[in-house]
Amino acid sequence: MTKVKEGLYYSESHEYVRVEGNVGFVGITDYAQNALGTVVYVDMPDVDDEVVAGEEFGAVESTKAASDLISPVSGTVIEVNEVLDDQPELINEDAFENWIIKVELSDKSDLDNLMDAAAYSKFCEK
Fold first, then answer.
1. Model confidence over 58-101: pLDDT tens digits?
2. Burial of 106 by CB count in 10 Å (0-12 exposed, 13-18 middle, 19+ buried)?
3. Residue 76: closest CA among 100, 99, 46
4. pTM, 2 dp
5. CB neighbours of 22 closer than 8 A, spacing ≥ 6?
6. Are 115 and 16 in contact (CB under 8 A)?
7. 3-class DSSP state for residue 117?
8. CB atoms within 10 A of CB 37
9. How far is it, in rounded angstroms, from Cα 74 to Cα 55?
10. Positive/negative CA dihedral, 12, 70, 112, 103
């Protein structure tokens, strides 16, 4: 059973964003990590890079496949989760605790295009 957390925003490409103030914590969902299998590498942007909602910002590689990371929001990268450089498998252990990038949001209306937990759960059932 795929875990879906309440209070997050979800994209159709299986990224989530947790918003605290004007900062978004972006990662991949439990559904995505489960589909990928064991994560072996995370390609992340640099701090101060701009990300754009709907556009690629990096990639996740697993023993089975590589998958582009699509940003659910637009803004400036203010932090990358450097722990994932050495321990990318942490995403498999808890995808929601192990975010990939922290973004200063440039347009909160991006969130209007994302799903809530209930909608995302239904989306995953298809």
1. 999 999 999 999 999 999 999 999 999 999 999 999 999 999 99
2. middle
3. 46
4. 0.97
5. 104, 105, 108
6. no
7. helix
8. 12
9. 9
10. positive
According to the model, what pLDDT value does residue 1 have?
Answer: 65
DSSP per-residue codes, 42-90: EE---TT-EE-TTSEEEEEEESS-EEEEE-SS-EEEEEE-THHHH-TTH
Q: Which of 56, 16, 64 is nearest to 38 (CA)?
A: 64
Helix (H, G, I), strand (E, B) or coil at 23: strand
Which pLDDT score is estimated for 75? Answer: 98
Closest CA to 28 of 81, 96, 84: 96
**C-alpha 86 chain-centroid distance:** 18
Look up tokens 């722990």; give the residue. 83
Candidates 106, 103, 115, 107; CA nearest to 29 is 115
Other CB atoms within 10 Å distance of the CB of residue 67? 18
Q: In this structure, what token pair is assigned to residue 57?
A: 């910002």
How far apart CA 10 and CA 73 sit, in angstroms, is: 10
